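Two folds, back to back.
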Amino acid sequence: MSLYLTRRIAKLPRRILAETAVELKLLSEKWKLLLAGLIFQYIHGLAARGVHYLHRPGPVLHDLGFLLLPELGKERGYVSEILFASIFVSFALWTFSPFIFKNKKFYTVLIWRRVLAFLVMSQSLRIITFYSTQLPGPNYHCREGSPLARLPPPDNALEVLLINFPRGTLFGCGDLIFSSHMIFTLVFVLTYQKYGSKNFIKVLGWVAAVIQSLLIIASRKHYSVDVVVAWYTVNLVVFFIDKKLSEMPDRSIKTSTLPVTAPKDGKTKEENLKLINGNSHDGLDLRPRTQVNGKNMENGNDDESGKDSNTP
């Protein structure tokens, strides 16, 4: 057993270097889309910061989830954050598993391109929603009497652009419908549901998503409607965006090192070789021909052609 582990560890640096070369090749082709997705994460944070200036604290709205779930309290609000951090880190580590494990099913660059597409569309809908109507925040720092419930007008644009990270994201108010934590959680769970290989982890992911939903409500960080809307919105977004995106190649099927990109002119490699060699016609007749009276004649018709030429 120790010899087996030693051999695997010895091969690990070479495997990491080989996978890095493959992923860098893909990154050189897809970096624009990935960069756009990362920039939008900042735009989403900026929008959440901006709506905090519009937030007006008020009485906590009547909520069925608040009636059914016991309140965790301000001092135990970290419980939901620990679970969310565990889901986030676990998913991120899994997406980089091709660098470590021999059996590979996906490319890290391509799967994050897909994840960012899901996140950007879901977050765009979220921004439109929470700017349409600002509800009084149920979180403790967003209630009446809290100094963090309302933000004074900014002194300059830089104060808004810096979004006071990470404090501004942890103590924001007004960005309620729908839950950003549930967007990330559901996108991660749905992605692993499709591209993951362990059924136990798939089931565990859905259980974690349900527990995360309950903890968010019990922590009074969101109303129940914020969580419910996230569940059906994110699932619909992933369903429709996934249909529009081209399917990722399955690396468990040994074909080529990189996914094949179709030529711009629509011609395959074999067709281009035919054009180069002068054989562009599919049904080209390669039978030998001879010349009779300056005309090309097929060998099978030589005798008949000769007879015809001597006939008056």
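---
second:
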Amino acid sequence: MPDSNFAERSEEQVSGATVIAQALKTQDVEYIFGIVGIPVTEIAIAAQQLGIKYIGMRNEQAVDICAEELGNNVKPAVTLLGDINAVTKQLLEELDKTPWQYPPESKWWKTLREKMKSNEAASKELASKKSLPMNYYTVFYHVQEQLPRDCFVVSEGANTMDIGRTVLQNYLPRHRLDAGTFGTMGVGLGFAIAAAMVAKDRSPGQRIICVEGDSAFGFSGMEVETICRYNLPIILLVVNNNGIYQGFDSDTWKEMLKFQDAASVVPPMCLLPNSHYEQVMTAFGGKGYFVQTPEELQRSLRQSLADTTKPSLINIMIEPQATRKTQDFHWLTRSNM
């Protein structure tokens, strides 16, 4: 009799991967993003058997909730520690009880409106420049002209992300994804892939515009293979200034190498000039474009938006020494060290 009971229990045993997959299913998880390996492979197979979609990534990411980070950037008047969903729900519940908004005629609002107007004028002036190579503002002006109103905008990089936030507009909530206040690098393509999976299932035809600096693209550029493997509705824009913050043009690069080898003379922030990142996309079956003028940018973006059969990457060459407009707030650039 004991042996019989043991046999029955043995037949009921399931793997740990199956238990995890079942737990995820009961929590209404629809997608899993992971790096293939033990134990992810077993969990992914078990999840797929239960109807959960698995997206195999090439680059691993991590997220922490850490109390020690509160106030690490700017000292806040109030700190909130907790799960963002729970905290946001609590805040909304309290606001429903006691509706409140900042007085629209306050000095703070007046100062903010004046600054917004000044920033808009400065950005328009930079965007109107006709010189080649293009600058950041010229690029984003022409991109903004064609952006679908319902698209997701993902941005990553230094100047690319900072300037993109001020020029590329969103019209719907939860349709902008970027690295946030910490400027974490390597998250852009992962964000784009996650957004694309949701868009592909729930809003066919919706596009994801992923705007990357050339340095930022290097952190997880091989996710292009993931994008092509699942044929995701993503258009990658790589804003290429040949470097991190700033780089050099090909003539300056060649002149430097006449004196010593690259490891001895090339500044650390410089990348190889005129790198053809669009060929990473074409290597995996997507469409790639190398553009140097506003006209080429407009044409390639128009073609990418019209072609819904495969992802695209537009490699946009800009002035290597291009920068953003002067920043007024010291906390944007100071070191905490």
